[in-house]
């Protein structure tokens, strides 16, 4: 572990890209619970890869523009005597490199969303993912929204656009699904469009989901 405040700051900054990757992946794709060791290894690996690429890009830029880039040889050899008078300049470059590295980590996290563009014969028929995630998010055609109808345990039916759902990878009954207006409820054979903006449904109350993908601005069937 870092023994100084400066070392701790550098250590935390080094792990930021991996942390952003992990958070973005959990927001987009259901993730199984992993041990702290595996989680730390994920942070470190992603951070190491993206930071090395960012350093490589800086090295190329340094070779092309030596007069307009920091001299990290002097940072190492001269230490404080070089860093102190150039602190703001070095900090700006370090922040820029961290931003590039973090951007690459976020790009890696978003990458699997483009798998749907691969021809069908290259995509797997069996997926290790939640069925909710697969049909409510991953299979949504570009330019379309997800509209669902739900048969509930009490015999009623509700429908609306998917606003949010719990991406828990395990199919647990406590999973929630939030529908956005227009929300229609059918109970006792009578249909009624309720005036609320959101309706939250628990998976324990859902018997069946009917899913369609109307284009943005098109009324669902």
In summary, what is this structure?
The chain has helices at residues 5-28, 36-64, 72-78, 80-83, 87-110, 131-138, and strands at residues 147-152, 157-165, 176-187, 190-194, 198-202, 206-212. It is of the alpha+beta class and 221 residues long. Helix 1 crosses helix 2 (36-64), helix 1 packs parallel to helix 5 (87-110) and helix 2 (36-64) crosses helix 5.
The description of the largest β-sheet is:
6 strands, antiparallel
Q: How large is the share of residues in beta strands?
A: 15-25%
Order of helices and strands: HHHHHHEEEEEE
Q: How many helical stretches? A: 6
Radius of gyration: 25 Å
Name the shape in a single word: elongated
Q: How many structural domains does the protein architecture include?
A: 2
What is the straight-line distance between the termini?
59 Å
Q: What would you call the structural class?
A: alpha+beta
Number of strands: 6
- The helical percent reads 40-55%
Low-confidence blocks of residues: 113-126
- Kindly state the mean pLDDT as a whole number? 79
Q: Describe it for me?
A:
- This protein has helices at 5-28, 36-64, 72-78, 80-83, 87-110, 131-138, and strands spanning 147-152, 157-165, 176-187, 190-194, 198-202, 206-212.
- The relative contact order is 0.11.
- It is 43% helix and 20% strand.
- The protein folds into two domains: 5-113, no CATH class; 124-212, SH3 type barrels (Roll).
- Strands 1, 2, 3, 4, 5 and 6 form a six-stranded antiparallel beta sheet that branches.
- A hairpin with a 4-residue loop joins strand 1 (147-152) and strand 2.
- Helix 1 (5-28) crosses helix 2 and helix 1 runs parallel beside helix 5.
- It is built from six helices and six strands; from the N terminus they run ααααααββββββ.
- It has 221 residues and is α+β, with helices and mostly antiparallel strands.
- The longest helix has 29 residues, at 36-64.
